[in-house]
Amino acid sequence: MQRLSLAAVLVAVTVITGCRSMDIEDFEGRAPKLVLEEFFAGQTKAWGIFEDRFGNLRRQFTVDIEGTWDGQTLTLIEDFFYADGEIDQRIWTLTKTGENTYEGSADDVTGVARGQTAGNAFTWSYNLDLQVGERTWNVHFEDWMFLQDDGTMVNRAYVSKWGFQVGSATIFFQKDGLADSQQSGIRHQRAAE
Q1: 3-state DSSP call for residue 108?
Q2: Beta bridge partners of 89
Q3: How far apart, in whole angstroms, are the C-alpha atoms of residue 146 and residue 15?
Q4: pLDDT digits (tens, 9 = 90+) for 69-128
Q5: Residue 162: what pLDDT?
Q6: What 3-state class would DSSP assign to 85?
Q7: Neighbouring-strand partners of residue 87
Q8: What b/e readout covers 28-66, taking b as 16+ CB neighbours within 10 angstroms?
Q9: CA distance 88 to 98
């Protein structure tokens, strides 16, 4: 009886973790249109958190991103600054393989990362060697990014190992200077009131 219960729980967990499956085509036609190489060209700032599978906040960070687009390849130099003082860098190389499709690589990514845009959304899937204390875990990332009307991009990344979700990240991206101009606009609006 106990074996049956354990098997039922494992099946239920697998079904629940496997049920989250948005389809990129569902976002076709949604505005504002996300053109990845245009959004990330130049300087971008990001703020993020990482939560474990229980919803406990594990890390907070900011990222300075420098992007260059040469007509075929988007290179992103990401400098991470963690709240605990750790500093890290990842350099992404994304190649446009079709009108809305991309492949990418980075030093800590195993295999090829693949992504696709539609409307205001971008989905991105890859395996990453993630440092956890003294150990390195190979985990799977499934990122979903959504461009908002004000130019902010919201990213939800789901992290799994052996098919089970082990955590998630929430990240907000803004073009450098956008936050300053928005704050300036708010100050002007308040002064006029």
Answers
A1: coil
A2: 79
A3: 26
A4: 999 999 999 999 999 999 999 999 999 999 999 999 999 999 999 999 999 999 999 999
A5: 92
A6: coil
A7: 81
A8: eeeeeebebbebbbeebbbebebeeeeeeeebebebebb
A9: 31
Tokens of 12: 């239920």
| Residue 189 dihedral angles phi and psi, to the nearest 5° | -65, -40
- pTM for the model stands at 0.80
Name the pLDDT band for 186 (thresholds 50, 70, 90).
very low
| Terminal Cα distance for the chain, rounded | 69
Q: Check if CATH label 3.40.50.12780 holds for domain 2-192.
A: no
State how far the Cα of 150 lies from the Cα of 32, in Å rounded to an integer.
9
Distance CA 187, CA 16 (A): 46
Q: How far apart are CA 20 and CA 85, in angstroms?
A: 34
Question: What are the boundaries of each domain within the chain?
Answer: 2-192
Tokens standing for 155? 């990213």
**107-116 LR contacts (CB < 8 Å, sep 24+):** 110/138, 115/36, 115/143, 116/24
**Beta strands at 135-147 and 109-118: parallel, antiparallel or unpaired:** unpaired
Above 70 in pLDDT, residue 184? no
Side chain identity, residue 93: T
- Do 47 and 178 form a contact (C-beta atoms < 8 A)? no
